[in-house]
Design brief:
The protein is of the alpha+beta class and 118 residues long. The protein has two helices and seven strands, in the order H-E-E-E-E-E-H-E-E.
Length: 118
């Protein structure tokens, strides 16, 4: 055989092996799930994974917000603010933050996939 053909075959085999290795690494790569960041007065007070179901209360001088994580979504389940807009907003998983202005509370979802299609 010609030397050029042998060298071309070796280079082609190396490129194929490298391509398969990159594919396998990308296929096994696990992306971290979404995380909800809870801010009060503009300061991060807690980060919660949306992959674990949990329930907790955030208190402030003016009252409280009971926050619930279930099924990969987060919501304000109960609050003692006068308008309760944060409660009526329902469950989110990334597209729009939940805001409670009377308690100066904001819940943002970061990372993972959301319902927004780019």
């Amino acid at each position: 055989m010609n030397k050029k053909i042998i060298i071309a075959a070796i280079v082609l085999a190396a490129v194929a092996v490298a391509g398969v290795a990159v594919f396998l690494l990308m296929y096994n790569f696990t992306q971290p799930g979404p995380v909800a960041e809870i801010y009060q007065d503009g300061k991060l007070i807690k980060s919660v994974s949306l992959s674990e179901n949990t329930e907790f209360t955030v208190e402030c001088d003016d009252g409280y917000n009971k926050i619930k994580v279930e099924g990969g979504k987060i919501c304000v389940a109960e609050a003692d603010c006068p308008d309760k807009i944060c409660v009526r907003q329902g469950k989110i998983n990334g597209s729009v933050p939940i805001v409670c202005l009377p308690h100066r509370l904001e819940i943002r979802v970061v990372g993972g996939n959301s319902d927004v299609d780019a």
